[in-house]
Amino acid sequence: MSKARVLFVSQALSPFLPESNIANISRYLPQAIHEKGKEIRIFMPRFGKINERRHQLHEVIRLSGMNMVINDSDHPLIIKVASIPSARIQVYFIDNEEYFKRKSLLADDEGQSFSDNDERSIFFVRGVLETVKKLGWSPDIIHCHGWMTALLPAYVKKIYNKDPHFSSTKVVYSPYDDVFSGTLDTNVSRKLTMDGFKKDDVHLLEHPNHSNVIKMGVNYSDGVICGPEELSDDVNAFIKSSARPVLRYSNPESCVSEVDQFFDAVLENKGALIEG
Questions:
Q1: Angle between helices 21-35 and 256-267 (to 10 degrees)
Q2: Residue 231: which domain range?
Q3: What is the average pLDDT across 252-274?
Q4: pLDDT-derived band of residue 276, with 50, 70 and 90 as boundaries?
Q5: CATH at residue 192
Q6: Which of 25, 26, 74, 174 has the fewest CB neighbours in a 10 Å radius?
Q7: What's the CA gap between 142 and 104, in Å, rounded?
Q8: Residue 66's CB: how many other CB atoms inside 10 A?
Q9: DSSP string, 35-92
Q10: What is the pTM assigned to this prediction?
């Protein structure tokens, strides 16, 4: 029996970005799942804050060069790669000068979210899926971390569902307390319909605040993994009402076996609710 293939997609990963709950979990969980016997790939944005020289990022020419249309504008997709020190694990970076050159991650120095964060998210998740296709690698599970990846489950289920690379792919979503100020661009629903979504597919984003973005991730996922972070009552209620399999853990360091078993259960279409 071949190894299950798990694609990890995160908006933050240490040591490339400063340590945080999401960055640390996204760093150590893939390695631990790999050591459990699964084949993995990892993707994150190439934020301008990342020191390319220190981390030895380099462009992968054979994967770069595609133009993606976002809101009627062309945006070149650049793929870079680096290794996690001491882990012998590669990380793929989605890059674009307009979206990711700036030194701040998701907000300016005054804490105001960037007005194009919706397009940065769309570019990121589409860039991941298109690059995976170029790699000729079909993931059995995609595990998404953070609000910036919340649109990926919807793309897999509604836009890429007939692509042979993703037609059988399960998606697991992990929400965090990575709350952004205000809302995403209120035209995000229209931009998504330009990619092929129907209006009903993206109705949750009519008011694109953090809670509703997270709900998008949950709504199109096959399972939800929640860590020790506090989520809003609104999001918790939505997760409970979604009837998705749920894994809740309190200690990231001791949850690896639980996550591995949860992946297996999702692959086998076991719908048991796992609370811990």
A1: 70
A2: 5-267
A3: 83
A4: very low
A5: 3.40.50.2000
A6: 74
A7: 27
A8: 15
A9: HTT-EEEEEEE--TTS-HHHHT-EE-TTT---EEEETTEEEE-EEEEEEETTTTEEEE
A10: 0.96
